[in-house]
Amino acid sequence: MLLAIDTATALTGLALYGPNGPLAESVWESGRNHTAQLLPQIDTLLRYVGATPADLTVLAVSLGPGSWSGLRVGLSLAKGMALAGDLPLIGIATLEALAYQYLPSPLPVYPLIRLGRERYATAPFAVRDRLE
What we know:
The protein is α/β, with parallel strands linked by helices. It has helices at about 35-50, 70-85, 95-100; strands at about 1-5, 10-20, 20-30, 60-65, 90-95, 110, 110-115, 120, 125. The strands form three sheets. A five-stranded mixed sheet has the order 3-2-1-4-5. A two-stranded antiparallel ribbon has the order 6-9. Strands 7-8 form a two-stranded antiparallel sheet.
């Protein structure tokens, strides 16, 4: 089972995937409370599907761009879980993940996320058969 962790923005997201697709997901406004909320939410999500951390086989985590503190919390937790469970860890670029949902598209895609302090991040993606 794959656990995906996204802490790049004030909206934190978790998802569990099995061999046949999504099992459960949770998205909430964490603001600046990623540290206090992330582990309890992972526990709740695992319990919801009747799983334990021992059932995880791979982890995925957002790499940013995004909130520096949020990314640090998500990456640290994912790295710690990967080391403790001897699990593979996959890093996913936040903007690339947002662009991927528009595959395929004849036009460039410009995903946009708010970084905070009146700053934003974007990048062009040519989405045809794969991201370029």
